[in-house]
Amino acid sequence: MSMFSIFGVSGSAISAQAQRLNVVASNLANADAVAGPDGQFYKARQVVFETLPFDEATPGAAGVKINAVTESQAPARRTYEPTHPSADADGYVNQSNVNPVEEMVNMISASRSYQNNVEVMNTAKTLLLKTLQMGQ
Fold it and tell me: What residues does each domain of the chain span?
């Protein structure tokens, strides 16, 4: 494994975490959304990662990639608001199934993973520069 492979691994992880942060932002933006006129509510989305193993035949292929973005199958949150224009016959409004607390935890985790991979790249760069300086 080349020393430069670490940049590919960390780079793919940074890209995957950036996508995860985008999905979290979308979920948080729709946390209080009510069902549309078609009766469909916003469903929380989650990113599913896949590990790419190191392979001598394809250098730089090791890392992380996004396998899928899945929708939560949890039921809609139902709140009793009989005066709301979207209320059903019983006075309930269907809202998105996004849990803001879970999404905030997900956001913090993705942000820290992103920062850790940036730190890995910075450390690898420093080590490579020091190695070059030793050869002078």
Answer: 5-134
Angle subtended at Cα 8 by Cα 119 and Cα 47, rounded to the nearest 5 degrees: 80
Higher pLDDT, 105 or 3: 105
CA–CA dist 65, 74 (Å, integer): 26
Indicate the DSSP class of residue 46. E
Q: At what angle do helices 100-134 and 5-29 cross, to 10 degrees?
A: 160
In this structure, what token pair is assigned to residue 103?
């999404």
Distance of CA 28 to the CA centre of its chain: 12
Residue 78 pairs in a beta bridge with 94
Give the pLDDT confidence of 37-96 residue by residue, as tens digits.
Answer: 677 888 999 999 988 887 655 555 678 889 999 999 988 888 898 888 888 889 888 889
Closest CA to 80 of 93, 97, 96: 93
Q: Which of 79, 104, 84 is nearest to 94 (CA)?
A: 79
Tokens of 20: 């995860």
Is-above-0.85 flag for pTM? no
CA of 74: how far to CAs of 5, 88, 98, in Å?
Answer: 40, 19, 9
Q: What pLDDT is recorded for position 29?
A: 92
